[in-house]
Amino acid sequence: MDIFIQQVFNGLTIGSVYSLVALGLTLVYGILHIPNFAHGALYMLGAYITLTMMLLWGIHYWIAMAVSVLVVGLLGVLMDRLVFHPLRNAPPIHDKIAAIGILLFLEAFAQLIWGADYRTMETPYGQVVNLFGMTATTQRVLINIGAVVVMILLYLFLKKTYAGSTIIAMAQNREGASLVGINTSRVAMLTFMLSGGLAAVAASLSAPINLVFPGMGHLVILKAFVIIILGGMGSVPGAILGGYILGFTESLGATYISNDYKDIIAFLMLVIILSIKPKGLFSREGF
Amino acid sequence: MVSLLKNRGWIIGFIAAGVLFPFVLPNAYFLHILTLAFIWMIAVYGLNLLAGYTGYLSLAHAGFFAVGAYGLGLLTVKTGMNYWLALILACLITSAVGLVVGLVALRTREHFFAIYTLCVGYIIYLIIDKWDSLTGGVRGLIGIPEPSNIGPISFQTPISQYYLIFAFLLFTILVMYRIVHSLTGRTFIAIRNSEDLARTLGISTMKNKLMVFVLSAFFAGLAGALYASFIRFIGPDIGYITIIFDLLTYLLVGGIGTLAGPIVGTFLIVALSQSLQFLQDYRMLIFGPLLTLLIIFYPRGIAGAYHDWRLKRKSAQRTRPQKEQEYFETEESEKQVKEG
């Protein structure tokens, strides 16, 4: 029973990270209908920037994370302006290939600057705490709390602010949003900013319990794709729910089935889902 | 007819260049690189038929490449099977895997298809990586034999292997040429341009898409099997996503949906990578943006850009043409543009 509770907690932790990454991906998909393969590279850069800030200038963890969110967010905006905006009327295959090009570039870039080594990120939250009969580091608890806070903030932003409503409006109907006077290019930039920021938060939160290296985004982004297909492409609640489902399945699967094959579980899930429902579980567009 | 003759000129030139190369530049290193490039070209042709002519971007082809390579490797190393039998079987196994994957994957469209095949490719990689007892896991598979003799012809020397793989490449090009210029090829293009319209015209899209998918997996498998017997060592890395990105770069630089594209792109990028060897792992710093810029400005690559330029020049040269003739010629060039 102890193992079970421990694994549920682990699943919750992994799930929060997955959810945050998937949220960024689903927001961009909802607005622009681009499967942004470069999102994993943004995630990786987020971790590296936080790490560099902390090592180089000794900045506190939270401030470093804030800087990272800003930088990666702006990078997202730049990506939209330079690549996706000029391609907005191109066939969908072009967006995908362009995104792959960005991914390749950013990874090589990270390798050039930071090297290919695996690095660890030390945080001030390494202590072990006991919670309801299970042990965890403070960092793991922080991941859970941080993710929920970010999700609530995102929800409030989307539902309660004017800028947030423009994103929802554009996801519901692009032409309609244009007609009522929403500047769609600006909304697209805002969405990329949010998406990059979410990736940076997820990476900075999870980096202390994982390792930081140029290829760290590969598996995460693939799983995020699984999640948004699971939860419906473009759906915000779907991304959150899907993230936690995948987190639980993986951590329980690793314990009770096989640790070696735990990464396959996600992809098998996706293959099965798409085999039965070719358009995803909840094929509803928009939010 | 003129364009056919022109094509024929290109083709004869290419064959002559390929045959004469070892005599003009007897350099073992260049020969090795070029042979490898030929293997990649075969795989890129497979991808081109699917992504370029039918419009389905498959990211599982590195996986199919690995299936072909491991199929040949395992059959020859573990069961000691005759090389040629193993080669045929490896291609058939890959086609069978392609058939199974295609049956499900082709029900999805566009983004779903790309993501689905990406995941399938990753599953193949993970299985090869983790199934230690069969594939040797991360240690890889060593001691794959070179092609066995056919009668008096042996394939021990690098030059003979070069010609063997060149022959396979020519066979691939011939098959592609015949497919693209047949009714089947037109059907594929029709599916790419509008699947719903194609279905309205009475084309069984699923059957055609499946055929294209299996064919394209077959050539990826063939390339993989040739790779295994040429390098004689394979590791799980050949199924990793970076390989499919490499193949995509070759295809896009050369020109997606064109017959000359795979040759031009692969040759250029391989030659460029060799001369930029000091960059090693950082070559993506150049190729990544190159890929992105190409797709924005020249979505049909070098071959496509050249083709457009020739059409433009042709129409500019025509001085005061007969109306009727002009009509036919524009029709002809439009057809060429659509067919690539």
Automatic annotation (TrEMBL), chain B:
Give the CDD domains listed for this entry: TM_PBP1_LivM_like
Q: How does it sit in the membrane?
A: Multi-pass membrane protein
A Pfam family per the record: BPD_transp_2
Xref: InterPro entries: ABC_transp_permease, LivM-like
Chain segments carrying region Disordered: 315-340
- Cellular compartment(s): Cell membrane
Q: Which keywords does this chain's UniProt record carry?
A: Cell membrane, Membrane, Transmembrane, Transmembrane helix
Question: Record's PANTHER family?
Answer: HIGH-AFFINITY BRANCHED-CHAIN AMINO ACID TRANSPORT PROTEIN BRAE (PTHR30482:SF10), HIGH-AFFINITY BRANCHED-CHAIN AMINO ACID TRANSPORT SYSTEM PERMEASE (PTHR30482)
Stated name of the protein: Branched-chain amino acid ABC transporter permease
Q: Which organism is it from?
A: Halobacillus kuroshimensis
Q: What is the lineage of its organism?
A: Bacteria, Bacillati, Bacillota, Bacilli, Bacillales
